[in-house]
Amino acid sequence: MQREGAAPEAIARRLHAMRQQLAAAFKARTPEPLRTRIQARTVATYGSPEGPSIEALRAGGKRWEDIIESACRPGARFF
Q: Would you place residue 76 in the very low, low, confident or very high pLDDT band (cuts 50, 70, 90)?
């Protein structure tokens, strides 16, 4: 997307959406009771079972480049 001249905001929004989809797919495959524990931690940390919204990240001071970088990074180990 960068090579095609896309703006950092467009890249961040696309990668964030892809990251959210990937997280949802893996959470759906996670057996109970671990799935419930992960969801509880996500809600406690971000206030939402889906994780932080892009608006919340921006409101928290994240630059578009920060969101791009974090969307490409694997999540923390839960165990």
A: low
